[in-house]
Amino acid sequence: MAFEEVTLSRDVEVVMIPQGVTTTLQGGTPAVITQSLGDSYTLQVPSFGGLYRLSGRDADAIGKEALGSASAAAVDPAAPVTEAQVYTELRQVYDPEIPVNIVDLGLVYDLAIAPLPSGGSRVDVKMTLTAPGCGMGDVIAHDAKTRIEHIPGVAEADVQVVFDPPWNQAMMSEAAKLELGML
Q: How far is Cα 177 from Cα 183, in angstroms, rounded to an integer?
């Protein structure tokens, strides 16, 4: 995607990158879309000297349509939840500074699906970050949880950020390495 200059049409809540702090940008603020992946946009805002993550639900503020779920196809909500469904959703979650999803980055360490006595399934995910001090960790984990919760049949989801074992570049898929120019 080529960088695209935009002007915010209304006030929007954004998250500062990499600090992970939520703030509000005022309508009329000029910005540059530097990344549009998954359900969010990364905006460079020259007047504030930094990068900000804009949720896809606020895409209208930059003249875009809201970004949709990868699992929007009709699915029987009574059908069992599969690992494939969960991984499909997790492939729509991105670190706002890296143009590769968290699955291909090798950040997802564990995935467990269990039926609940009350119906539906519980999905537990353990994931890590490329750097332990990343301020966006809670934001990325929340994005993953939200995506999982939109899968028909998921009654509960829990995403935990762990740091053991420490992440390293060898955990990335070949596609991720190719995307990042490491091959």
A: 6
